[in-house]
């Protein structure tokens, strides 16, 4: 099985354990509390990881818990951080995250963006001195839940090569958009600007799987099927110069906060004592400026219907975000954990003195 297949496989394969979302959330929260976060912050970080798991986005799920714990214990993530507003221009706010967990500073920033959008029609919050924030869609959905069009972006350490280049120079620099429709029918985009996220290679490495050609190049700039060589080399930009251009735009947005740009960001997998000092960008936009929110929602719903009806030979194309939403609906409140991930999570639990993650008992 290829890594692309394994990342999206059904949650009923016998070699995987099953975990209920509630149990996973409670367990991850406990691990993070024992590592040094307070209860509220631990719940935010855990919720972002379980959000990704339930949507089948393994690259940003519990796979990330171990490195978060290592960074909290070592100090690269400040478990007692207090994010501060350092510039306030009304519709534009700049925050210093104080090396807080990325999901914590991101949630704080989203809520400010929504508050300012209620008053000004748009709220833009840029963050410096941040850390890895997980799945971008976690934040845009929070904004959309409040009734606003949500945008989010974040830069990372340099892992993407330029078209025609070989050495990494820009980050995966993900960006996301969520439309304020009811969650079950909400179109949304969440994408890395690389062909795949770095987490896809980490999943392949953990499962001892090859990666498709085109995802990454080795240190000599040659296409590779080895996730180890790809991690040592560089990821390819999505769509060539188009993805590279989008990644560049993300760096220009987070630089508004005085954040470090990709070549200066500390790698997530580097010395856990060092904060990443990356940047985050969040925007909330009122959808009822030109017409009622209902009118806006009706037009976006009609656009989604047009996408669904554009197929041929019985094929029904999907709008952005629908594959992830379908996996969440099919999950029945549980998610799969591979043996390699379960082993890694057991080591994390032992490190902080908590019981291992409990699996749903297998039926006889």
From TrEMBL:
Pfam families per the UniProt record, alphabetical: Ldh_2
Keywords for this protein: Oxidoreductase
Matching InterPro entries: Mal/L-sulf/L-lact_DH-like_ah, Mal/L-sulf/L-lact_DH-like_NADP, Mal/L-sulfo/L-lacto_DH-like_sf, Malate/L-lactate_DH-like
UniProt key word Oxidoreductase: yes
One Gene Ontology term of the molecular function aspect: oxidoreductase activity
Record bears the keyword Phosphoprotein: no
Family: Belongs to the LDH2/MDH2 oxidoreductase family.
Name of this chain's protein: Ldh family oxidoreductase
Organism field: Arthrobacter globiformis
Lineage: Bacteria, Bacillati, Actinomycetota, Actinomycetes, Micrococcales
